[in-house]
Amino acid sequence: MKLTFTASAWSLALLLAAGEASAQSVLKYVNPNIGTAHSRWFFYTPAAVPYGMAKLAPSTNGHYGNASGWEAVGYDTRQNSIEGFVHFHEWQVGGVSFMPTTGELRVKPGDLDGPATGYRSRFDRKNQVAEPGYYRVLLDDYGITAELTATKRVGFHRYTFPKNDQAHLILDIGNTQGESGEVTDASIRMVDATHVEGYVSTYPKYVKTYDPSGKVNMYFYGEISKAPASVGAFTAAGIQEKQNSATGKGAGLFLNYRTNAQEKIELKVGLSYTSIANAKANLQAEARSLTFEQARTAAQATWQRELSKIAVEGPDEQNKTKFYTGLFHALLGRGIASDVDGAYPKHGGQVGQLVASGSGPKPEFINTDAIWGGYWNLTQLWALSYPEWYGNYVNTELQLYRDKGWFGDGIANSEYISGVGTNFVGLAVAGAYQVGIRNYDVNLAYEAVRANELNYRNRAFGSGKMDVKAFTQYGYVPFKEEYKQYQGEWYKTDSTGSYFSNSHTLEYSYSAFAAAQMAKSLGKKADYERLIKLSNGWKAILNPQSKLMQPKLADGTFASNFKPFEPWRGFQEGNAMQYTFYVPQNPAGLIAALGRDKFNNRLDSIFTASAKTGFGGGKEIDAFAGVNAIYNHGNQPCLHISWLFNFSGQPWLTQKWTRQICDEFYGTEPIHGYGYGQDEDQGQLGSWYVITALGLFDVKGFTDARPIIELGSPIFSKSTIQLGNQKKLVIEAKNTSKQNLYVQSAELNGKPLANCWLYRDELMKGGKLVFTMGPQPNKTWGSKTPPPSAQ
């Protein structure tokens, strides 16, 4: 049953809410404040629904912008004043900030170290409530209680004022917010006494770099419950009294009121990336007659339904908090960009119209950060219980391929914003095909997947993989030391090679494998043979003496001055110690190349050492804190490594280390949430916790022609999963506890499992998977027959 937010569907929302009320609510286990030190722009957006366009949240520092384009910005638990409540929160997308105030009119947000310099207000976190679908805070400087909630495309505000003859609503439109970059144009006007409309155009840093002719437009149409006594405007040039419109940089309006004690003023704001008319249509379709309370109830009923697709039981409340907060971030991370009528933003401010193809639900167009590493968390979670969102992801990328000729690893309103310069979209699409998600044109999908791996002529810079020609020519990407800095462009990549040559070689080898398996499934033998040969490119850069991946020059010699722990040189966001294990497509081949004993001893010693620093960068608050460590769970390249012991005959070490990572890397505090200030990347680390806590994983990201599931150490005594095919899977872990983390035996639907893996299609039939757990490893269980590494 799908919940929509039209007025006619309000009775449905009430029925759903009433049904959920009889069951134990999982919302109490979601704590949006976890990990809010050094968190990214999307991260703290509680007033939203899953995958919503409207993601309302308080901002402590959003107007400061983001000089690097990607760093933490928006809300930080270490800051104690709020400058506004912002509507749009996506990777490289942010804007439209509202703020209620009283007293002297101010139209600048002011400074963090001097709140009185602007309209920002101090607040006390004891007076703050953040829940899935709802946010509330008391603004101390004004005595105003602010509340936020949302439907998919409509943001709701409710402000409770004190008695005051100088009350204001500041509608700050034309200024930088979060990652949005420079504002190039803005407009806002009162349509009548209680309606406001406008837009803002921005030029984010990563659009400027990867898709320079692109732009990001945001539109809104708002309804206000009370007409203001007067209206004024402001721009970067200053205040214009008694004006009801403003245009250009710094544009905004101030609405003046006389309020009584406890008087409530509410706003409903329809959003769109295509036009003001569509923002208004979205508002009318989803929220025409909804009250704030009705919207909040419906939003929280939606969260209850979606989070409850995986119901976990057990005595450890802290683990439930980690689990459901991780799932919350996974379902929050990417947001729809299409309107209720299927309009979506195309390149350069154009508007397209989605056309459904294939079977299944009508797709939505979504904005997304890079899928880099997402096949070790997000796509596996989507495939398990949320296949409609995997389908939306694939359909979005195929629409981009139709429109622009290439996939885009990260996209903001159809603009390329990769950030990592590679492109794993083909791998993710191939994985979707292999798990049976096919609500798209399969032939077009394969064409695009193949092109992503093999084509380089006229390749768009923002589509990444600009060294595909070199990879297909040499079988590896040659290392270019001189490209560390090139005419001001860091870490250059072109048709002759890259400064990130080794990580690219390993990544392209893996994605070539995924494309090869899709080719094989579709009977394309010649393509399969070419791609499967490229999937072994990793062998070219493995130094047989050191048994480490080492940068290699175009002449076939290894680069000198090699330092295994040195980050960046040859390896994006990592080092040789981390990346040497990056052969997920062929673990058996890597184990044979290193020697099984050496492989196991080295890998086990890596985790023993990294446990001392919390499996990341220790307590240093920085996204790259672990980039030069021996293992770094705070970043994508390492996320499959702890599962490799299943392939090397020691599955008990996968059980040990995955459990310890869950216990120690993940926390339940604002600062210790995902490591210490490490990068959640739109729900990836949260998704990893969810699937690992269930004891289910695939290092290949479901790219095998017949995908598998590896088995780990389930944390919860019972997990009931609503599978994407509408069947139910129950996972029982008898005797599981912090000490009883080792699998003694397992069975599926009453039949003993001798292996630490099974084929995914067997699992997706549903039924009951039972583990018996104990405090010591059973070294005979699951160690005889490793998961397949067939090429």
What are the main properties of this structure?
GH-type_carb-bd; alpha+beta; GH92 mannosidase fold; 9-stranded antiparallel β-sheet; disordered N terminus; Beta-galactosidase, Chain A, domain 5; single chain; 41 strands; 18 helices; globular; 791 residues; 26% helix; 7-stranded antiparallel β-sheet
Characterization of this structure:
This protein is of the alpha+beta class and 791 residues long. The protein folds into two domains: 32-309, Distorted Sandwich (Beta-galactosidase, Chain A, domain 5); 314-334 and 369-774, 2-Layer Sandwich (GH92 mannosidase fold). The chain contains 18 helices and 41 strands. The chain has a nine-stranded antiparallel β-sheet. Strands 1-3-4-10-17-14-15 form a seven-stranded antiparallel β-sheet, with no helix packed on it. Strands 19-36-37-41-38-39 form a six-stranded mixed β-sheet, with helices on one face. Helix 6 (378-385) crosses helix 7 (387-404) and helix 9 (442-454) packs antiparallel against helix 11. The longest helix is centred in the middle third of the chain and has 21 residues, at 501-521. One of its GO terms (biological process) is glycoprotein catabolic process.
